[in-house]
Design goal:
Helices cover 48% and strands 8% of the residues. The chain is mainly α. Helix 5 (195-216) packs antiparallel against helix 6 and helix 6 runs antiparallel to helix 10. The longest helix is centred in the middle third of the chain and has 22 residues, at 195-216.
Length: 340
């Protein structure tokens, strides 16, 4: 195999899924690999540099979308493809600056195939230091499950009502607060009654929480968690005060609501796969319909899901109105410039 030449290097946390799709679609002799603390775009044919570097520069600057760039088929006796072209105004094809026409390309052996195992994952890989709160919440999901196994969870939940007419002033929640046990407004989010519940919430935090924290900052995510946890817990308690509950799902749905707002505000923010929040919403509605409880026989804190989701939507809208969307946009722009 020929030696691979590095064309460009990108940060580990930059999403290169668009570039990976371009490589696969056009069957280019390129691969994306992780070397050290960088993502490297490499080729076995260094002559491709003159052809592709102008295109990569324009993509890094945000001038073009690689999903709209096409490469003309190459003749069997040529070593380089026809220059990539992108659709301009009026549908005309615009050649890439610096590309050589196919008839001037030297004759050479066919290039090696793309290394499909080295293409970029659809989900970005964030450095640990940029998502400390998300990682802490993921760990707490499993800590809460272990506390249930050791029967140490009763100090964390709101005691259920024993029955009869419910009056908030004479409720168990009022008793907790009167005795200074304010932590119970937050700590039910830590309690997970099964390993699968803890695992699903941890996966949701990994997929939704880490991108939101990496872009919006840890303080913004902390505010979202600290507000949405008691809101979702109180909504669930007031809806069904006779049943104990726990789990990070209310916080997770608050994060999903915030991500939904920011995705609408910034359509090119692709750290979270398109349609994933929609899947969360569909699952929330399926659970609320009672099908999950009917089929699997498990209780679902539907009110916590709905309350958390509504809280996340509202807080994200307030975040944007307060100017947070400008900081969010600045973070996206700074990431793109660092990769240029």
């Amino acid at each position: 195999m020929s030696d691979w030449t590095t064309l460009r290097e990108y940060p580990l946390d930059q999403d290169l899924s668009e570039l990976a799709r371009f490589i696969r679609r056009c069957r280019l002799p390129l691969r994306i690999s992780e070397e050290g603390n960088r993502q490297c775009l490499s080729t076995p044919d260094p002559r491709l540099a003159d052809l592709l570097l102008p295109l990569l520069d324009r993509w890094s600057a945000g001038e073009i979308n690689l999903d709209q760039v096409r490469v003309e088929p190459v003749a069997a006796d040529t070593a380089a493809p026809v220059p990539p072209q992108s659709a301009g105004d009026g549908g005309e094809a615009e050649p890439v600056e610096g590309a050589q026409p196919p008839e001037q390309a030297e004759r050479a052996e066919p290039a090696e195939p793309v290394d499909s195992t080295a293409t970029e994952s659809p989900l970005p890989s964030w450095p640990w230091r940029r998502t400390p709160l998300s990682l802490l919440l993921i760990a707490l999901c499993f800590v809460g499950w272990l506390l249930v196994r050791e029967d140490l969870w009763k100090m964390l939940v709101i005691f259920p009502e024993r029955g009869g007419d419910f009056e908030l002033g004479n409720s168990t929640l009022a008793w907790h607060l009167a005795h200074g046990e304010y932590w119970r407004l937050w700590t039910p989010a830590l309690v997970h009654f099964s390993f699968m519940h803890a695992l699903f919430n941890a996966m949701g935090l990994w997929i939704l929480g880490r991108p939101l924290e990496a872009r919006g900052g840890t303080p913004a995510l902390a505010a979202l968690v600290l507000i949405s946890a008691p809101v979702s817990n109180l909504v669930q308690y007031l809806w069904m005060p006779q049943i104990p509950f726990g789990g990070m799902s209310g916080v997770l749905y608050a994060i999903a609501g915030a991500v939904l707002v920011l995705q609408r505000r910034f359509p090119r923010w692709r750290d979270v796969p398109a349609g994933l929040v929609g899947m969360f919403v569909v699952w929330m509605l399926v659970c609320a319909s009672g099908l999950v409880t009917l089929i699997f026989g498990v209780g679902v804190a539907n009110a916590a899901h709905l309350g958390g989701f509504a809280c996340g939507l509202l807080l994200a809208l307030l975040y944007c109105l307060a100017g947070g969307d400008k900081r969010f946009a600045a973070a996206l722009a700074a990431e793109k410039q660092s990769a240029a």
